[in-house]
């Protein structure tokens, strides 16, 4: 098994290295070889898929690496690793046929991201986790800026700034945790709960992983990065990479340990709920399908964060909430990935339109949580896992009753997505039947693995029967309400009176993508300018001080005066004689003792 | 000193010195045109030194200590010792010297006064090895001053006005430091007699400090002032950004191999092997050093942020990064001590890579400003990759070498009960990111047209038959050191990695 794991990390890295090596220098043979490697790069995820299916869950260590590297595949990590295998595999197969320039570079970086991303899910100690988390975050920059357009580079800059702050927060938290004498991730929650610096650690973890998970107000990079990245890259960015933030929160927050955390739990839940609202309201005002999906991701990640916040509020539900968060992450990853891929299929594939629209619709219904879909199961198990936990300041409303409103928002967003997609023309230039089929299977059959996964977690999870009337009714109203809202908006928009209403015919110019990102950019720009100015002032002050010291009274004239007088041989001779005499005297006096 | 250390009288420490001293003297005697012979001598010396060090490492790790001593004047002994720390520093400078020699041969190809240059170049390394092997303060002092004198001609090498000015300022600062060091060494010798370095502190110094803590504190401060100039501690750092007028290999030497490192080495020697950490803490000096180091870390980074000249930005970065070493030495925790020691190697390899790359950009494309680097990644991908690796390492990202130091220093700060160290480290991380990441982004993602003062859309293609992006003698050292930056991070747990060796060295200071 150890060999298999080694292979699963080394093979993608080697393929990436091969692509890089073949990109140096020109030559037709080289180019052809590179194209071949890029085309079959998706095969590099296969070893990971195999080993993740067969692994026994034991700890594997590599002592010579860093401060001791260790991985372990537990029930939280395994489904996420398999999710990564599926989405990265399809993404790698999609890239060679996409409209992106330099597919070799994109696939190379996707392979590196894949390795790091899988690492995040299996890392078993602090340093290993930090290694792969940081690697994945910074490699993510390469796929965000891949297209090199102005907007891609802006998105990249915002992404980098947020990443640096997130990384620093995570590093600070990890150092504090490590100083408690803990290394294995399994021991971390208890150690954090018992630590004196507990509040600082929890705050740093929420900031650090909140950036990755798109928790508002740290979400600003997300609506810029998703549309900027090529579609296959957006799929893994949204489907798998965001989950690195979730697993960070799951692994390191003191879930189910020690006393309840009303402050931090309440904060996370509140941020999550606001995020769900913001995502729906701002998202529908856009007409770029990728921006709409990005806002949908913010809302969905908020849903998962709410589960984690609830587990902080009530330690007793932690096992169920953690399991639900994993199920929901997988469901969201599969469906959201399918939806991002669907943009490329729609644009480029030669498949007939119905063959694109049907899987697309099934995926969209899944995200909205309609019955018989993956989202249906995920939403139900999540709701059930919460019991009767309520917000600290709001004891009348159970959190479980607020969660369905996320689905209303999702439904409205997806209706908007459908409208935006229907306005795109299809070019039908490329697309291999195999990768398109793989995509269709992913979109149509996502419910099966999610159901299977949820069953594996029962108990603590309660899995709904496919046709049991209670859950179906419970889960249907948000979806139906969302459809009704969307239809009402569409009806209003068709009225001649509202033909020019910007709110009903949004073009994405009412609230720019990234909403409050402008504030961040201003703040960062201002800080940078401030620091640079301060730097200049510091330098000028220092130079002035040095200059003053230099101009001040100098001993040089006196010294040279004395030197000039000593320079005559009479004086220097006399001095030499005196010095010799002194030395002799010293030797005579001191010699008595020696 | 460990109880199981076996001291063996041996000529090997002297041979280590001779491997660079002999080539230096022979090279001075060569005519300018004897390029092949000169290069052979250089490389033979450098390789011999590396081989010797590799042979010595397992022996010294096993607890053997080689020693050579001469009496200069009765009572004043010249002592060379290969304890773990000295060999650690010799290994660092020997390895980087080899890389720098190859780079310098390529860099200076066809330029005048090469015999002079390489003569002083070898002398510079001789002085560094002398500093490393010095077994007492007197020997240390002699080689420390020698280092000042032999680097002056290197900084001034180009003979331009700027070069001469830079060299003069360099000399003023370092000679000033040298005077302070001389004063401190003489004073301490007067008080306690000639004493040898001893891991954990010299007993005589401890006795003296118990008798007269005030004088001991003043002597300690004067000694630190003396070595602090070379270590570029704020506010004694002024020479470093000015001395970057020197040719790239000399910058590498100043920043990574010899000068700055000698200062940092001196700080650790004085803190740990003269006074001892416990005594230094008792005198209150440790806290003072930690504060000065922290101020320097932040100050250097803030100044670096505003520099458009690439080498100047790197120079201020050195000011900041070298103080990581001083900070680690100033924390009362074994893991911080090891972090300080390992950062000598890590900072050395990262910074030398950055200067090699800066030199490559300057030589190949005549680019010396950050704002000119737009799109260079396309034309010089290998150089740019090496630069990126080293810069990410500087920020302290895993799996690169810099992460090892940062993690150790952070844990050490907490272990020593000084949690504010985390704040300093995180601030420095963010600032390092703020001045390195924009360079990386510019290199790789900006179109050439955004570059300052460029009219054409592309760079001229490389004009050499191999099709390589730059001459091999410049490119290969940069690639090699960049690979070590990865290796020292990834393989930090290997038995002979700098991190493991640094822990062994650090243990000595914790009896």
Can you give a write-up of this model?
- The complex is a heterodimer of chains A (594) and B (511).
- Chain A has a domain at 255-282 and 290-515.
- The mean pLDDT of chain A is 88.
- With 594 residues, chain A is an all-alpha fold.
- Chain A has helices at residues 2-23, 28-39, 46-54, 77-94, 103-122, 126-144, 150-178, 188-194, 198-213, 222-228, 231-252, 262-283, 289-313, 318-348, 353-368, 374-385, 399-402, 404-422, 433-445, 447-456, 469-494, 517-551, 556-567, 569-591; strands spanning 60-62, 69-71, 390-391, 394-398.
- Chain B has a domain at 300-454 and 466-511.
- Helix content of chain B is 72%, strand content 4%.
- Chain B has a 3-stranded mixed beta sheet.
- In chain B, a hairpin with a 2-residue loop joins strand 2 and strand 3.
- The chains are: A mainly alpha (594), B mainly alpha (511).
- Chains A and B meet through helix 6, helix 7 and helix 22 of A and helix 13, helix 17, helix 18 and helix 19 of B.
Short description:
The complex is a heterodimer of chains A (594) and B (511). Chain A has 594 residues and is an all-alpha fold.
Radius of gyration of chain B: 22 Å
Topology of chain A as a string of helices (H) and strands (E): HHHEEHHHHHHHHHHHHHEEHHHHHHHH
General form of chain A: elongated
Per DSSP E runs of 2 or more residues, the count of β-strands of chain B stands at 3
Count of helices of chain A?
24
Which pair has the most extensive contact? A-B, 42 and 44 residues
SS-derived structural category of chain B: mainly alpha
> What's the helical proportion of residues of chain B?
over 70%
Residue stretches of chain B low in confidence (pLDDT < 50, at least 5 long) are none
User: Can you give the helix content of chain A as a percent range?
Assistant: over 70%
Query: What is the number of helices of chain B?
Result: 21
Quick one: how many beta strands of chain A? 4
Oligomer: heterodimer
- Could you describe the largest sheet of chain B, including whether it forms a barrel? 3 strands, mixed
- As a percent range, the share of strand residues of chain B is under 5%
N-to-C span of chain A: 76 Å
Overall geometry of chain B comes to globular
Structural class determined from secondary elements of chain A: mainly alpha
Poorly predicted tracts of residues of chain A: none
Strand content of chain A: under 5%
Mean pLDDT of chain B: 90
Membrane topology (chain A): Multi-pass membrane protein
Protein name (chain A): Formate hydrogenlyase subunit 3/multisubunit Na+/H+ antiporter MnhD subunit
InterPro entries (chain A): ComplexI-like_HydComp (IPR052175), NADH_UbQ_OxRdtase (IPR003918), ND/Mrp_TM (IPR001750)
Pfam families (chain A): Proton_antipo_M
